[in-house]
Amino acid sequence: MRSTINDQSDYSSENTILIIVLKPGTGEAQVRHIVNKVHELGLKTMVSQGVERTIIGVIGEEDILRITPFEAFPGVEKVMPVLKPYKLVSREFKPETSVIRVGGLAIGGKTIQIAAGPCAVENRTMLFDTANAVKVAGARLIRGGAFKPRTSPYSFQGLGEEGLKYLKEVSEATGMPVVTECMDPRDIPLVERYADVIQVGARNMQNFTLLRELGQTKKPILLKRGLMSTVKELLMSAEYILANGNFNVILCERGIRTFEDATRNTLDLSMVPLVKRLSHLPVFVDPSHATGVKELIEPMACAAIAAGADGIIVEVHPNPEDALSDGAQSLTPEEFSKMVAALRPVAEAVGRAL
Ligand code: PEP
Ligand code: MN
To answer: Which of 126, 164, 210, 269 lies 20 to 30 Å from 277, alpha-carbon distance?
Structure first.
């Protein structure tokens, strides 16, 4: 399947969305005819060409959508409004899974992608040591925070631009794209220069100003689920980014707060198959922040892959006991390597590659 959207620049919240399902076998010329007619009405389209049939998402003002007799267009089988509050992120709007391109990698395709690295970039040496080790073990993206959202203002806050520079340098040396967090809309131009994937941390999932601004970039976004957020709220936050023009969003489950305090958070794995039904966006799982316990990371990573996750993001530190943040949940490179070996048969069992 492939999708094209004619203009991703300015969906406003007042816009309504409906879906035109075409009859099987409708030819390209007919699709183009419908798309042109829709554009003449001042509406926008997104075309999803499936193996069996083509679907056209139509976006625009409700009044125009209501009075236009789309059913009468040749080749149209049925017309349905997208009823869910999240629209552009929904499977109704785009039936095929989105594949997000990051460097030479495809996220959301058959291959499961692993992002690994330290919680925070602490210095150049530890970042290079970690990156080289995780690459050999099978990681395809390097993660590391330069801006850290710490609970205490007295805790290590990250190296800022210096950390970003080390990330870029390590990325050039290893070929692994960089995933790093941006906490503040004012930092977007800076982070954009160094990052391949911009992470929105759990604490910022509902920072709507940040989401809107990230929607105006073209960079893939890793949107982490908030500590106290529902699946619907996560999808609504993703909708902010898509509605502002950026369709390159990867969702990430990282555990939610419950009464259970034996683990740092409670990993809601059921959200993975649920979100994959509700949305076309790829889903990652972060077993490090979800459990906070290093012994639980391998089994939960395996479970995440079995549940249908498209990738995992894991914290690895060369000396976890010396880590400036999240040492208790950081794997050593050896433990990480063992985890990747454990993931392989699970990926194969669910028809994925690693
Ligand atoms: C992180 O991944 O570095 C992080 C801070 O995670 P979260 O936002 O999920 O707590
Ligand atoms: Mn961390």
So the answer is: 210
pLDDT for the residue 14 = 56
Q: Is 331 in the pocket of ligand 1 (CB under 6 A)?
A: no
- CB-neighbour burial class of residue 98 (10 A; exposed 0-12, middle 13-18, buried 19+): buried
Confidence of residue 7 (pLDDT cuts 50, 70, 90): very low
**Closest ligand 1 atom number to CA of residue 224:** 9
Domain 2-81 part of CATH 3.30.110.40: no
Ligand 1 centre distance from Cα of residue 47 (Å): 35
Q: For the chain, what are the domain ranges?
A: 2-81, 100-349
Residue appearing with tokens 């454990």: 342
Report residue 231: phi and psi, to 5°: -60, -40
For ligand 1, say whether the CB of 116 is within 6 Å of any of its atoms: no
Q: Give every strand in the sheet of 2-5, ordered side by side.
A: 2-5, 44-49, 54-60, 16-22, 76-81
Q: Please, are residues 178 and 194 in contact by the beta-carbon 8 Å criterion?
A: yes
pLDDT of residue 4 exceeding 80, the answer is: no
**Is residue 155 within 6 Å of ligand 1 at its C-beta?**
no
